[in-house]
Automatic annotation (TrEMBL):
Residues 37-65 are annotated as: Disordered. InterPro entries: Carb-sel_porin_OprB, OprB_Porin, OprB_sf. This is Porin. One of its GO terms (molecular function) is porin activity. It comes from Gemmata massiliana. GO terms for cellular component: membrane. Transmembrane segments: none annotated. It holds the Pfam family OprB.
């Protein structure tokens, strides 16, 4: 039956895209925005803040602000270090082809607690390639997005003692080695201004809809805001959602932004592998609703959804977004632990602006929260409750800076605690993170990050980590 279901899923995807090609033209090409979920398209103008005529004189002199074309301007005002490549880059963008390279370096240390006190250096290279089919001369509504990553060096995730890694970016594509891999390759076809279908290898962190500083820089979670996994991504879905997953689905759009999406994922982690043996283990169904509001004339986003997987798991099985303590020991000591069929979770996330720049709505800061509950077996996380403040700086002359302060509480399940109790007792994990992201230029940002956490492993003392992150947008 599973093989038959897999064939139905694959056939449905083929039919969806065949229908898209046969559907023909519609009045206007859909261009999803920067905060989109699975139909998100990264374009050359995203992550920029163009000066407006009403901005006070001297803004560029006190803090360079990139123009609408991120490749234009001098070395200290453009949004990308390498500029326009003598006009070639903007010419390619006008033909629907864009390429970005982001280099992010981390130097962090465990200064107290944890499994080990040490300072580590490592980094990421993120390569983003995007195709707009209409501009390329193919047909309207066609988009192709690729995300490749290089991870190198070392990080704190193996020594901080946390079940939710303190540096989510360095956990992928493979936390154990230096590696380059394609973690996202997604094809999207908009059938109208209000409906689109998509399929491919989907980077689920890229698609996470909640942003605390919208419209700035890379727009990639973990690279310019919070770093702790619990404050970047809702860990309630960690049991069922891979980091890079094969998937297909549809999106309902409003004002060219996704309002509702439904995705059928393969449960297998594919960050460093291809798309072979699709849906052999079952399927993960993910409905997701995003409501964008204007409460008291201030933008907000409210996100509700859930996951249901038909695959088989144990609570101590590997999970892409978690570091299960002493995983090998758990497996060795509990070989007879039965596999549970199916796993579910529900979540609610929100961001509500409190302060908004009158001249630039994207420049705002506000409150955010992430909440969730799961089955507790096989999900090792029973509930999640996170919150804080974050967004763009209000400091005069520092329009591109961002900041955040957040608290997270990760309630581990009784089943997971019982399995771990004989040799590595577990408790709920909670902590605080703060960061300030200083824009040296529009293409170069330096972040200070500080975290204090009570690790899930009882015999590990309170962990304090601190460090710097330097990001350059090429």
């Amino acid at each position: 039956m599973r093989a038959d279901f897999r064939q139905v899923v694959i056939a449905s995807v083929v039919l969806l895209f065949s229908g898209a090609l046969a559907f023909g033209q519609y009045p206007q090409a859909v261009t999803p925005g920067p905060n989109s979920v699975p139909v998100a398209v990264e374009g050359p103008s995203q992550g920029t803040t163009a000066p407006t005529p009403s901005e006070p004189a001297g803004t560029v002199a006190t803090e360079p602000v990139p123009p609408a074309n991120p490749y234009a301007g001098d070395l200290f005002s453009r949004a990308r270090l390498t500029g326009d490549w003598w006009g070639a880059r903007s010419a390619l963008a006008n033909r629907g082809l864009t390429f970005d390279l982001f280099a992010t370096q981390f130097y962090q240390g465990v200064t107290a607690g944890g499994n080990e006190r040490a300072w580590e250096y490592g980094g990421k290279l993120d390569y983003l390639f995007n195709v707009d089919g209409q501009k390329l001369g193919l047909w309207k509504g066609l988009f192709l997005n690729m995300h490749a990553e290089t991870r190198y060096g070392t990080d704190l995730n193996g020594i901080d003692g946390l079940i939710a890694p303190s540096n989510i970016a360095m956990n992928f594509p493979d936390a154990t080695t230096s590696i380059t891999s394609i973690t996202g390759l997604k094809l999207t076809q908009a059938l109208s201004e209000n409906f689109a279908v998509y399929a491919g290898k989907i980077n689920t962190l890229d698609e996470y809809p909640l942003r605390y500083s919208p419209g700035l820089g890379t727009n990639k979670p973990g690279l310019e805001g919070f770093q702790n996994t619990s404050l970047v991504f809702n860990p309630i879905v960690a049991r069922t959602i891979p980091y890079a997953a094969a998937g297909a689905g549809f999106a309902v759009l409003k004002d060219l932004e996704p309002v509702f999406t439904f995705t059928v994922f393969d449960p297998e982690e594919r960050a460093t592998s291809g798309l072979q043996n699709l849906y052999d283990r079952g399927v993960v169904l993910v409905p997701d609703l995003v409501l964008r509001t204007k409460f008291l004339d201030r933008p907000g986003a409210y996100n509700f959804g859930g996951t249901y997987s038909t695959a088989k798991y144990r609570s101590f099985d590997p999970a892409a977004y978690l570091n299960i303590p002493f995983l090998r020991s758990l497996v060795a000591r509990n070989p007879a632990t039965p596999l549970e069929t199916g796993s579910w979770s529900v979540y609610a996330n929100f961001y509500q602006s409190i302060w908004v720049d009158e001249l630039d709505e994207k420049r705002n800061w506000g409150l955010f929260g992430q909440f969730g509950i799961s089955d507790g077996n096989p999900n090792p996380v029973r509930f999640v409750a996170n919150g804080g403040i974050g967004g763009r700086s209000m400091i005069p002359g520092r329009k591109l800076d961002t900041f955040g302060v957040g608290y997270y509480y990760l309630g581990l399940s009784d089943n997971f605690k019982a399995l771990a109790r004989p040799f590595t007792p577990q408790r709920d994990e909670h902590g605080v993170e703060l960061f300030y992201n200083y824009a040296i230029t529009p293409w170069c940002r330096l972040t200070y990050d500080f975290q204090v956490a009570t690790p899930s492993t009882i015999n590990v003392n309170t962990t304090i980590t601190t460090g710097l992150r330097l990001q350059i947008l090429f």
